[in-house]
Amino acid sequence: MSIEITQQFIEDIQILITEKNNESLLVLLEDFHYADIAEVIEDLSIEEAIYLIRLLESDVTSEVIAELDEDIREKILSELSSKEIAEEIDELDTDDAADIISELSEDQKEEVIAHLEDIKHAKEIVELLRYDEDTAGGLMAKELVKVNENWNVLTCVKEMRAQAEEVTRVHSIYVVDDDNKLIGRLSLKDLLTTSTKTAIKDVLIKKVDSVNVNDQAEDVARVMQKYDLEAIPVVDEIGHLVGRITIDDIVDVIREEAEKDYQLAAGISQDVEADDTIWELTKARLPWLILALFGGFISVSVLGGFGDAMRQFPELFFFTPLIAAMAGNVGVQSSAIVVQGLANDSLRGSLWNRLVKEISLSLLNGLVLAILLMSAGMFFLGFDFKVGLTVSISLVSVIIIASIIGTFVPIILDKRNIDPALATGPFITTSNDILGILIYFLIAKLILGF
Amino acid sequence: MSIEITQQFIEDIQILITEKNNESLLVLLEDFHYADIAEVIEDLSIEEAIYLIRLLESDVTSEVIAELDEDIREKILSELSSKEIAEEIDELDTDDAADIISELSEDQKEEVIAHLEDIKHAKEIVELLRYDEDTAGGLMAKELVKVNENWNVLTCVKEMRAQAEEVTRVHSIYVVDDDNKLIGRLSLKDLLTTSTKTAIKDVLIKKVDSVNVNDQAEDVARVMQKYDLEAIPVVDEIGHLVGRITIDDIVDVIREEAEKDYQLAAGISQDVEADDTIWELTKARLPWLILALFGGFISVSVLGGFGDAMRQFPELFFFTPLIAAMAGNVGVQSSAIVVQGLANDSLRGSLWNRLVKEISLSLLNGLVLAILLMSAGMFFLGFDFKVGLTVSISLVSVIIIASIIGTFVPIILDKRNIDPALATGPFITTSNDILGILIYFLIAKLILGF
Asked: How far is CA B54 from the centre of its chain?
C-alpha cells in the first residue's frame, strides 16, 4: 500500500544529508517508489533536494522530477546545469520530457535540447513542444507500439519486442499502412491466441477510436471516460498516427478540471494550493472580493434608496441579510446543478421544460421556507403579521428569481463558449444579493405602502 | 470523435420502433458502441427502451444496462423478468454484475442468481455482493490473469491464453504460490522477451502494489493515482489474491468524489442531477436552505438587538448585506483551499504557521478592500467619515475572522473524521454571516458609542 512519510523519516534523511552519509541514504531509499521520493523531496530544503537528486540514479530522479509540484521543480531545475537537466530528460518518456522542457526559459530550452543524447528522442520532444498543453497534442507521448498492415504475426511480435523496450506499458498495438495512416489495432489477446503466420491484415480490428492532435484535453477525457479506454491513438489532420494518450494523464486532466471548477465556485481564480505564497493566493482571491465589494456598494445604494421606510418599518431592515443569504444560496444550488449537467453532457430537454421545472421546484421550496418563516416569526420572534407576510412573499419571489438566474446564467455563458463554472460562486451570489434586496423592498413597498 | 446523438436520430429510432422495423434498427445500431446505445436509450421512453433491449444481442445490451443512469436502469429492470435479467448478467464481468444485482430487491436478487448459467460466475458474484460498495472489495472484479510461481513461461502462456478468454483486458499477470497468496507479478513485456523454458520464479517481479479488500475506495484511488497504476490486485486479510481493480472504475470514483465535494460546497446534499425529479432535488436542497433560514433568524435577532442605533446611524444598516457577503465569500475561499489541500494530502506545516499565514493574507486583502471602501464611500456614496471608518475597520476584522473560521472548521472536521467538504457552502456562509454582522455592530458600538 501507500507508504506514510513521517516527520521523523524526513528528519532522518536530513541528518544523513548533513553527514553526507551517501551509503545509508542509498540503502534507505533503495526500494522507494519515485512518487514517494518526490514527496520526501517536497519536504526538504532546495539544497537538500539537489543533494539527493545528484546522489540517486537518473532513471529514478527523472521520474521524481516529473512528479514534483511545479513550483518546487522550477526551483530545483534552476540550480541544475543544462547538462544535468538533459541527463534527466534523456530518461523520460517524450510527454513528460516535453512538459518539463516547456517550463524552462527560452535559452535554457535550447541548451538542454542540445545536450540530449538520443537524437530521435530529442526530435520527438521538439515536435511535442509545438502543441498547446490543453490539446491532445500536448498530452500525447510519442512512445507507442505500431505495426504495418503488410506484416504477419511473427514479424509483428519481433518488432513489438524491439519497440516494447522503449514503451513502458503496451496497451494496444496500432496498425498503420505504408503511409503511416492509422487503419486499425490489434489486441494483445488476439496476438497471444493467433498463429504466427497469420497476416496482420486478417486479424486487425478496423474499428479504432482516435482523437485529433488539436482536440481539447477535456474532450479527450470525455471520450476516454465514455468508452472506458486506457489509451487512445492521436492522429494529425490527414490521419497519420502521431502519438498516443494514456489514461493516467487523463486522470490528471479530470482531477485538475474538477479542482478548477471547485475553486471557481469558491471564488478563487487560479490554480492555487494552500502552500502557495501569500502573493499568489492574493492574486487568486482578491479580484473576486473586489467584485463582491462593488456588488456590496450597489446593495448599499439600493437600501439607501429605501431609507425613508426605516422609521416606519425598522424590522424590514433586520431581514435584509436573511433575504440576501437565501437568494445567494438558492442561486448557487441551481447553478451548481446546471454546471455539472453541462460538464457531464447530461442536460437534456428543452429550455422551456427546464424553466417550468425550476419554477415548480423553487415554488415548492419557497413555500416550505415561507411557512417556517411565518410560524417562527409569529411565535418566537413576535413580529407584526403584515411585516411577516411581506417577508414571506418576498422570500418565495426571491427564491424563484434566484433559481432562474442560477439556472440560466451558466447555460447562456456555455452557449457563448465561456466557462459556466464562472457563474457559480461570488458572481451569482453577489448579483442575487442585489436583486434579492431590490425585489424584497419593492414588494414591501407594494404591501406596506411606504 | 465521440458520436453526437441528435434529436433527429432519436426520432428516427422512435419511428422505427413504432413500425417494429427490426431489420433497419439492427442495421442502424450495428456499429454503435454500447456507451452510445446507452445514451440513445436514456432519451427513449421505458417501453421503447425495453423494445430495443429485447431486440439487441445480450452481449451488447448487458454493457448498455451497466452503463445506464441508475434511475433509468431501475425502471427498465423492473419491467424485465428475472430470467431476462440473468441473461444480461451472464454476459457481464463480475464487478458490473454485482453492482447491478445489488440494486435489485432481496427477492429478485435470489431469483436472478438462481437463473445464472455459469455456476462459477454466480459464486463469484455472490462473493462480491458481501462487500460494501465504497471499499476495494466493492470495486474489484474477479476476472484476472494469475499464474503459479512453480510454472514456466510456456505453461504460463498456455494458461494465460485460456484465462484471457474471460478477461477483457490483461494488465498484469499476477503470480501466486500454491496457497493462492500473491507473491509477485509478471509484466507482459517480460513475457514477450523471455525464453519459454524460464521458470516463473526467476522472472517474477516481487515488488507488487496491492490493496486490502477492506480499504476505502478513496484510498485505493489515491494509491492508483499516486503510483500511476492501471490495475491493482486486491488481497484479503491473509494475503490471498481475491480480485483486481482497474483504472476505469477508479476514474468513476474520482469523478464522483469531485462531484460530491462540488455539490456539498453548493449546498446540495445528495448525488442529484439536473434531470432528477423535483422531489429528489428538493430532498437534496431544502435541508440546506432550512439551515440558512434559521441562520437568518439569528441574524434578524442580532440586528434587532442593535435596533436602537437605527435612528442615529441608519447608514450602518445599509452596510449589513455588504459585510455579511464579504464574510461569506472570504470564508468559502479559505475553506475551499483547505478542503482541497486535505483531499490532495498537500497540506503541510503546523497549524500555527497556517494561522499566521491566514491572518497575514486576510490582513493584506482586508486592507486593500478597506481602502477601496473608504475612497469609494467618501467620493461616490458620500457617507460620513466616522461611519466609513467604522465600516472599514469592521470589514478588515470580519475578513480576518471569517478566513480563520473558513480555515479551521474543515481542519477540525477532518480530525474528527467528518467530511470537511461539509464545511464549505451554506454552513460556512451562514455562520460567517451571523458572526460578521455581530462583529460589525460591536465595533460600531465601540467607535460610534450608541
From this structure: 32
CA distance A60 to A31: 11
Residues from chain B that touch A295, judged by Cβ atoms under 8 A, are 325
B314 in A contact zone (CB under 8 Å):
yes
Binary contact (B263, A336; C-beta < 8 A)? yes
Instruction: Check residue B449 and give its pLDDT.
Output: 84
Residues 18-57 of B with CB under 8 A from A: 31, 33, 35, 42-43
Using CA atoms in the order A14, A15, A21, A26, what is the torsion angle rounded to 10 degrees? -40
pLDDT > 60? residue A2: no
Contact assessment for residue B227 and residue B245, using Cβ atoms and an 8 Å cutoff:
no
Residues of A in contact with B272 (CB under 8 A): 337
Asked if residue B272 is part of any domain, the answer here is: no
Contact A185, A175 (CB under 8 A): yes
Contact A262 B336 (CB under 8 A): yes
pLDDT average, residue stretch A18-37: 92
**Residue A261: pLDDT band by 50, 70, 90 thresholds?**
confident
What integer pLDDT is reported at residue A187 of this predicted model?
75
Q: How far is B35 from chain A (nearest CA, A)?
A: 6
**What pLDDT, in 10s, does the model give residues B34-75?**
999 999 999 899 999 999 999 999 889 999 999 998 889 999
Q: Which of B285, B288, B435 to mutate to test the interface with A (most CBs of A within 10 A)?
A: B285
Q: pLDDT tens, A49-107? A: 999 999 999 889 999 999 998 889 999 999 999 999 999 999 999 999 999 999 999 88
A241 and A371 housed in the same domain: no
Domain shared by B290 and B224, yes or no: no
Residue of B nearest to A281 (CA): B361
> How many Å lie between the alpha carbon of A336 and the closest alpha carbon of chain B?
6
Q: Which pLDDT belongs to residue A351?
A: 81
Cα B189 from chain centroid (whole Å): 34
Interface contact flag, A300 B268, Cβ < 8 Å: no
Residue A293 region by backbone torsions, left for phi larger than 0, else alpha for psi between -120 and 50, else beta: alpha
Query: Out of B161, B255, B295, whose CB is closest to A192?
Result: B161
For residues A390 and A403, what is the distance between their CA atoms, to the nearest angstrom?
20
Residue A152: DSSP 8-state: B
Measured in residues, chain A has a length of 450
C-alpha cell at A81: 546545469
Tell me what pLDDT residue A449 has: 84
Q: Check B230 against A247: CB less than 8 A apart.
A: yes
Same domain, A172 and A121: no
**How big is the A-B interface in CB pairs under 8 Å?**
341
Any domain includes A2:
no
Asked if A427 and A381 sit in the same domain, the reply is yes
pLDDT of res. A4: 75
Task: Say yes or no: A135 contacts chain B, CB-CB below 8 A.
Answer: no
Count the domains in chain A: 3
Question: Are the beta carbons of B274 and A361 separated by less than 8 Å?
Answer: no
Are residues B439 and B305 located together in one domain of the fold?
Answer: yes
Q: Is residue A273 part of a domain?
A: no
Same domain, B158 and B88: no
- Residue B242: which domain range? 146-246
Report yes or no: B336 at the A interface, CB cutoff 8 Å: yes
Closest Cα of chain B to A209: distance in Å? 7
Which of the 8 DSSP states describes residue A6? -
Cell triple for B66: 451497466
